[in-house]
Amino acid sequence: MKNQTVINVYIILSSILIAIMLFSFKNLKESFEEISVKRINIVDNNGKNVIVISNQEKFPLPILNGKEFERSVAPSGMVFYKKNGDECGGIGILDIPKANMTKMIFDYSNSEALGFSMFETKNGKSYGAGFSIAERIPLGADILKVGTSGPERISLSTDKKDAFLSINDPEGKPKIILMVDSLGVPSFKVFDKNGKAKEYILKD
User: Fold this and answer.
1) Burial label, 25 (beta-carbon count in 10 A; 0-12, 13-18, 19+)
2) Same domain, yes or no, for 118 and 191?
3) Mind listing the pLDDT tens digit for each residue in 19-63?
4) Which has fewest Cβ within 10 Å: 94, 152, 185, 196?
5) According to the lineage, what is the superkingdom (predicted)?
């Protein structure tokens, strides 16, 4: 009888503690001055990820057609998802041994569509930034064989003090290149079907 009384008291105290905890969580403040976390999952009403913000160690694997794939390098950053759970873009910050890189990418249904990027070597000798538009890979293609990015169609970029605009054919081969070099000299190249270039340079 004494043991039963102890058990009853334990159950009552536990119930009160749980009620207090639930009441406390219900009344948490909706704003914070500062919060430190390793990963935040923003989900829809069904619990599926809509946006994930993560450090490098907990960065999610890419998902296509409901299947996860390995990443060659895991960044820290943010990932966006479609309603079906597939990844559709994101922002990645990479700190590799010799350089720092930042990328923002938006996807087609099965491959990368367009992206912004920046890189800078840690010794400061090489740097650049750019914008790229890619051809979509064929629907149903095996991305393990063909990759997640089709041929680059348009590229606008800088490399140190040179600036380029490249317009490419469906296979990613350059057809037109506009350039202004580090001395401010503009040039224009047109490539024939064999890849041979005709170059025009405007000089003072």
Assistant:
1) exposed
2) no
3) 555 555 555 556 677 889 999 999 999 999 999 999 999 999 999
4) 196
5) Bacteria
